[in-house]
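Can't paste images in this forum, so I'm doing it all in text. The chain is below; anyone willing to post the predicted structure tokens underneath?
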Amino acid sequence: MNQFDYIIVGAGSAGCVLASRLSEQADKRVLLVETGGSDRSIFIQMPTALSIPMNTEKYAWQFETEPEPHLDDRRMHCPRGKVLGGSSSINGMVYVRGHARDFDEWAEQGATDWDYAHCLPYFKRSEQWAFGEDEYRGSQGPLGVNNGNEMANPLYRAFIQAGEQAGYDQTQDYNGRQQEGFGPMHMTVKDGRRWSTANAYLRPAMSRPNLTVLTHARVNRVLLDQGRATGIELEHKGRTRQFLAAEEVILSAGPIGSPHLLQLSGIGAPQTLAAAGIELRHSLPGVGQNLQDHLEFYFQFRCLQPISLNGKLDLWNKFLIGARWFFNKDGLGATNHFESCGFIRSNDQAQWPDLQYHFLPAAMRYDGREAFDGHGFQVHIGHNKPKSRGAVTVVSADPAQPPKIQFNYLQAQEDIDGFRACVRLTREIIHQPAFDAFRGEEIQPGVQVQTDAEIDAFVRQSVESAYHPSCSCRMGCDAMAVVDPQTRVRGLRGLRVVDSSIFPTIPNGNLNAPTIMVAERAADLIMGRQPLPPSDAEVASVATDLQRPGTPMRTVS
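Text version of the structure:
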């Protein structure tokens, strides 16, 4: 019973997709291994409770970075899912594919056939869009996507209107023809529940007799024999066990777990492995390198009207919201509260949007605590195309010892400049007439933060991770690439990596949607199926006059 055709390590955003798709082949035995356990908790399934699983050791690896030298040596929180559904069971449920040019950039960097035209059909295949199908959106896939409560709070629409008044476009579907602009935000919620990949993909597949799901099992290493991956070694219920793969081992342990597991297996840079006391089995210097992430901070204002969610954060109101959700699966419990958003360019040289807004009709932190007494609202804003690069580095042959994580946030001047633009452009937007009836005092950063030096100091002290680590097992064809465009680990047979670690560069948006897309396309590659034909859907390119807020949009093409 320890022999399978495919072994998938990690039941997260990618692993659940792969388990579902690969087990569609009735004659193939599939093993899915997960370190965590069940996702049945109400705190996972109720969308509004998103801050709880992310900060709970039972459901998430509570990784920390090394002191970040360009963030005043702060250690940054880096949670990763440790539960069925992985990070799709602990994330903010925001559904953003990224800009079309993000994927064209992948192809330009050596990820052949991973351009937007080849990726779009797999976004569509994965999706069950609540508002019907068109050439950009899918309606028959497993992944439920909608807009929560349809922007019932007037602050959501005020944000969109303010963006338009500042000279930016409105976009009715940033996941469709045009990302750039302001509009409704989409979330992976269906029938009022978090629609993780565990709910969307894995649970319907678990009744198949050829799929085995093993939880509470920590994988120690990949077994290698003469240049081929033959299986895995893991710890389960106090025992060390081995499972063999007749065809392939697929690592879907995420941007921290996958490179760490490769290194533990003797696959990586020789000097890195030697320093950790690990025997070199296959030299691959790019393992763990090219690590990227998104940073963001909260732009917070007091609200002049008592309409924000800050009035719902007391225990009695939380009980009422939870009770309504428990019985009806609707109301404020059925949304992540990020229901409007924006994508703009930090400067007029940017080829596509590199700043992203999540609007929240409340002033609070990710852990759910109030930012201040009284009513408020906030915008999460970040520079999404960072130039800074970090690494995931094994430090010990002991699999229980976490790796060293160093992002080198804000190492590049372009990233510092991007956050200066975040502050200045956001102030222009929030001070448009649409917010006159709502906008009170600026709490954060505070009106005293004006010069470049003051903005830089505020950013160093206030930015937080947007929890989008990626790119640490980069896909490509050069010497530093870890996997080839077929997702195969370069130089080895029978071993692949399929998760956000194989992104060549980080997209302009949240990462759950592109991770699911990558797994959908990789499943066809693994099974030898004919890939879906590329799309010929056109993409809008829009430029904004950043110097004169209030001027009309210019169409570039």
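The domain at 148-184+295-383+410-462 is CATH 3.30.410.40 (Cholesterol Oxidase; domain 2). The chain has 13 helices and 27 strands.
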